Amino acid sequence: MNRNSFLLSGFRDFNPNQMINRKYIFKNIENIFIKYGFLPIETPVLEKFSLFSNIYGSENEKLIFNVINSGNFLSTINVSDFYKGYKHLLSLISFKAMRYDLTFPFYRYMISHENQYFPFKRYQIQPVWRADRPQKGRYREFYQCDADIVGSDSLISESEMLCMINEILTSFGINKFNIYINHRLVLKSISKYIGESLKEYYLYIGIDKIDKIGKYKVFKYFINKGFSYLSLFKLENIFNFKGNNKKKIFFLKKKISNCDYITSALDDILNILKYSSLFFNKKKNIVFDLKLSRGISYYSGAIFEVKLNNINIGSICGGGRYKKLINISNSLNFSGIGFSFGLDRLYFVINKLNLFPKNKFSVMVMIANINLNYACFNILSDLRLKGNSVEIYPDVIDLSKQLIYANKKSIPFVLIINYKSNHLDSFILRNMLTGEQNIYNKKSIINIFS
Amino acid sequence: MNRNSFLLSGFRDFNPNQMINRKYIFKNIENIFIKYGFLPIETPVLEKFSLFSNIYGSENEKLIFNVINSGNFLSTINVSDFYKGYKHLLSLISFKAMRYDLTFPFYRYMISHENQYFPFKRYQIQPVWRADRPQKGRYREFYQCDADIVGSDSLISESEMLCMINEILTSFGINKFNIYINHRLVLKSISKYIGESLKEYYLYIGIDKIDKIGKYKVFKYFINKGFSYLSLFKLENIFNFKGNNKKKIFFLKKKISNCDYITSALDDILNILKYSSLFFNKKKNIVFDLKLSRGISYYSGAIFEVKLNNINIGSICGGGRYKKLINISNSLNFSGIGFSFGLDRLYFVINKLNLFPKNKFSVMVMIANINLNYACFNILSDLRLKGNSVEIYPDVIDLSKQLIYANKKSIPFVLIINYKSNHLDSFILRNMLTGEQNIYNKKSIINIFS
């Protein structure tokens, strides 16, 4: 049997090296979240299936992992239920489902905690599960990392988010990226301006694909959906405009002056850019981009997305403003703004750019075990008292084997008691990277590692 | 509808205050694990049900949460399967199950990663799920925190574990506790010595209950199980012996001299105590206790458990040495030693003893939003540059409401632009704990928070 086949397809173990890199990512992100006033919450892995069925759409709902009711789950089931098919049976034998994203749990959290103050700035870093077909870079278990501000309509929130994203990426040494920004109502105005208001949904779908499949194929898609040639001519005219953010906004304001929302939407963009420039100091990496069209059924205001200039893996984070946290009819009105980082893409990028910290050793010193000498125990305790990560090899075995262990565990220093010396205060300190060995007394060694 | 009823019974949300306390616990424990050379791994929430059914015993297996196969899980099911009962059906419609503990996943990890070096010192802090009846202090989702050393028989590992436990508890300010230690083979020798070798299992079960139900009831249980009066007389004689660790060991060595394992088992205890005293310096809180009898079907050597002197909530951590990581017949021989902390008990204790850090503010400064003044954005950026957690209230609303927000979020300082001043470099710094207000220029404020 293939040993890997013990692991479920689409699921992963993380070994110590991977874990240390992942913890580095989490820690950086969390520190910056907190620096911006976002506080952590956590919600259970399981939620009531009845509550969050029907909110993701039937295609997505197929990807939800359901948990079978405990005990004799058939006790209330008749054979007639069995014949009614699996969907019917599922609703009878499964009342619990695994977390599919961090949005529904946050919404449920807000309902469960009615005395919450507003605006509520939360972050949440937890895994989610989707029964997707596993493929390269797509897993069935993966971490999401969400931050939201609910209960405020201020555009300062948008700017804070953009600034925070900027700080998170640069904290990893990622510098070559753009934050693309657009506005739901700008897109809506364009659909009206080109005379295709009734087909606005197809416009959003198509625009979203321009970067992936090219303008030519997208325009073919529009023609298939019945867009007029005049509308496409007008659309091309708008998309062909080149210029910086301010010029683009000025151009659109003039061009689409007859639409209701356009002015306030463009002013929103202007204000977000203005506040952001105050937060960012000299940064100029925010790009107003009409081709951005994400979360079609979800976002109502500004939308944004981050793409790297030198690595083509799509967006590594994105978000936007919504009128309702969850788009269900009886949803309480938690309006706000949120964004999400995909941990796996971030890990991929940091690794690809070789930006994970080097020489950050987990264990600093291994003490070789020659004959259970007390002096070894003693120096071990003292090195730990100074805060060092130190271990003693547990078994008295051949020194070369102990050194192999230290090597495999990437321990940079090995301490060996010096038998050639007459007293027990002499140690050989071996640098495992260079192979260099030097003799020190205990005091000197404690000093080296203080 | 009760808002809390949105949450599944036995499951919990964690709000920011709880999260910050939990993160404090995790961070302390992880830092000390790493200091002792243990490195983190993580395994998936879901594992193949076929692999870990049959290892927990049928009573425990009932507590496993099973995930229904995705899609039409009935496609290969006949009505005859339906009539064969829920256990049969379960094996056909569920191939995945949720993590029940951290032992099986670690075992599976070791099998999946064949090139692992040994001894392997791992820690793992992840939630597990059990379909237990929820009650006070017992949840269906809870974190376990395990550390193991596999691939070494050295008793140094036992001492390292005890020393690490000691350091973890004292790092929280918990000082009044004992680490109780016993040895499987000492108990086995006692069963032989009293002439009840064939009933050793009942002896272990009974001993484990002495602290909970008292000696009288336990002896009644032994009588019910057919123990002879002579055996109970001998047992009482042993248990009545009072003395420190060394005296107890000396007494047993003399008393049970005719049993095979007793000498080596008692020497093990002596060595563990000796090594531990070298690690611990002056600590004397390790107690050799014959009444300790945990993990009956699991541990093979030394066993240990920590109890607090002033809070009666049972053990807050425990572990022992095993010959096999998992007790299944074809199990690979990963011998080693492990222990486990229960996060919820630790949280309870730290909270009860009022030991969570005070005045550790998540957000240090809130900048009041009077009229979107640029000076506010400016000082916000500068305070963050100094590493402070700072937020600006997003909306321009009544100052008193902004102060209420800061209060609810336990933000200790609020900064308000000083309108009475003629220039924009004057701020009122309000201490939210005392209500005190002072006027400073920007430079002074940056200095205060540097």
SSE blueprint:
Two copies of one chain form a homodimer.
Chain A: H1 16-35, E1 39-40, E2 46-48, H2 49-52, H3 58-61, E3 66-67, H4 79-83, H5 86-93, E4 96-98, H6 103-112, E5 120-129, E6 141-150, H7 156-171, E7 177-183, H8 184-193, H9 200-213, H10 215-224, H11 229-239, H12 245-255, H13 262-280, E8 286-288, E9 302-308, E10 315-322, E11 336-342, H14 343-352, E12 365-367, H15 374-385, E13 390-392, H16 399-408, E14 413-417, E15 426-431, E16 437-441, H17 442-448
Parallel strand pairs in A: 1-5, 7-8, 12-13, 12-14
Antiparallel strand pairs in A: 2-4, 3-4, 5-6, 6-11, 7-9, 9-10, 10-11, 14-15, 15-16
Helix pairs in contact in A: 1-7, 7-13, 9-10, 12-13
Structure report:
2 copies of one chain form a homodimer. With 450 residues, chain A is of the alpha+beta class. Chain A folds into 2 domains: 345 residues, Bira Bifunctional Protein, Domain 2 (BirA Bifunctional Protein, domain 2), CATH 3.30.930.10; 84 residues, Anticodon-binding domain (Rossmann fold, 3-Layer(aba) Sandwich). The first copy, chain A, is 40% helix and 19% strand. Chain A is built from 17 helices and 16 strands. In chain A, strands 1-5-6-11-10-9-7-8 form an 8-stranded mixed beta sheet. Chain A has a 5-stranded mixed beta sheet with strand order 13-12-14-15-16. At the A-B interface, helix 1, strand 1, strand 2, strand 3 and helix 4 of A face helix 1, strand 1, strand 2, strand 3 and helix 4 of B.
